[in-house]
Amino acid sequence: MKKNRLYSGLLVGTLATILMVGQAAAVPSFARQTGMACAACHTVFPELNSFGRTFKLNGYTMTGIAQVEAKNSEAASGLQFNQIPPLSAMLQVTAVTDKKSDPRTKISLPDQLSFFFAGEISPHMGSFIQMTMGSTGGFAIDNTDIRYANHAGNVTYGVTLNNNPTVQDLWNSTPAWGFPFTGGVSPTTSPLVADGLGQNVAGLGGYADWGNGVYTELTLYRDMGNAFDASATTSAKISGAAPYYRLAWNKTFDSGDYLMVGTYGMQTKLVNGTTYAGPEDKYNDAAIDLQYEHPLANSNMVSVHSSYTNEKQTLNYSGGGTPTLKSMRVNAIYHWGYHATASLGYLNNSGNSGAYDDTAYTVQYSYLPWQNTKFTAQYVSYAKKGGSTANASDNNTMTLQAWLMW
């Protein structure tokens, strides 16, 4: 009973504190640029709907507001950009309760504070650039995707410059924009393509939607000079270029149902972060993923996302042998229009060493009184943690979050 009162009190307190500031007076920069509400591109943010995926595919360039324009002597468009700067902000306030923390409940204000430059740069080029201050203070570059997009017949093609493998992806089944969108499971380890490279790399690649439901991409990532953990005891940097590939097939059926089936992967070599020489750690990640959307009456919808990643490691640098990691993620989300969601998630990690093994379940409910304001209650339950079922429940967490975008 004490725990229930604590969770209820935290939720009511968080809601009351945020609601006292009143409704946000504006919406994020993509909505400002297009003149459309958030629901035009999202079911419940950050999940993209079909229009949102098309907007991203075309380089964030669709606009519905007046432009600053100038023509050169050849009557071509020499200058064109939005009259209103494509700026927006995000605030997350989070309370997390678990058995291991001291104090048991940690409140972060802010958990994240982000500013975005997101929108059209020129008629064929746009950006999603995020600067974030975390709970420990200090701003740094967060997820970034700068795109050029164009058309040749039915083909939409483009170039992406980004700093996090899968941040450029159109679907919510890949790691960067995947469930649970906030907080969530903290596995003992994750495939390298899913964790550890974000904001430490820069990738330049090309993509194409071939007009027949097929999407392809190839991006090469290089190290940006920031050492990151290759194992528990070593720091490493990428050797040469790490190729990332993406292949997906998607279709909207006559019933309105939508299906995407795809694969993605990455091959990465890590070496000594000081000398860039010597033995290499090799990570070969190969994944398959799926996204399914089933529309219901009254704008309700069920969506399902899943991915399975097989990572083969050869750890000559860090001396860890040849472990494997298999990671399975599945979630189902029920949408009550654009106002609320109820979600169930499952994670299972396993490896030949046993130390990677995790099993966890996520229950999550989100409520949106307005399209740019989201309150979330989330509970994560561990059945196995770090290869052990003993005391795995000590890692269970309860998270309450207010997420504001304006």
Describe the structure.
There is one protein chain. With 406 residues, the chain is mainly beta. It has a single domain, classed as Porin (Beta Barrel). The protein has 3 helices and 20 strands. The longest helix is centred in the N-terminal third of the chain and has 18 residues. The two termini are 37 Å apart. The N terminus is likely disordered.
Care to give the gist of this entry?
The chain has 406 residues and is mainly β.
**Any idea of the CATH topology?**
Porin
Strand content: over 45%
What is the terminal-to-terminal distance? 37 Å
- Quaternary state of this entry equals single chain
Share in helix: under 10%
Q: Given this structure, which CATH class is correct? A: Mainly Beta
**Helix-strand pattern:** HHHEEEEEEEEEEEEEEEEEEEE
Mean pLDDT over the full residue set: 85
SS element count, helices: 3
Tally of structural domains: 1
CATH architecture: Beta Barrel
Query: How many beta strands in the DSSP annotation?
Result: 20
Structural class: mainly beta
pLDDT under 50 segments (min length 5)? 1-27, 227-234
Shape annotation:
globular
Structure keywords:
406 residues, mainly beta, Porin, 16-stranded antiparallel β-barrel, two-stranded antiparallel sheet, 3 helices, globular, disordered N terminus
Set down the secondary structure blueprint.
Elements: H1 2-19, H2 29-34, H3 50-57, E1 67-71, E2 77-82, E3 87-98, E4 105-122, E5 125-134, E6 139-152, E7 155-162, E8 201-209, E9 214-223, E10 228-229, E11 235-238, E12 242-252, E13 258-272, E14 281-295, E15 301-315, E16 324-336, E17 340-351, E18 358-370, E19 373-384, E20 397-405
Antiparallel strand pairs: 1-2, 3-4, 3-20, 4-5, 5-6, 6-7, 7-8, 8-9, 9-12, 10-11, 11-13, 12-13, 13-14, 14-15, 15-16, 16-17, 17-18, 18-19, 19-20
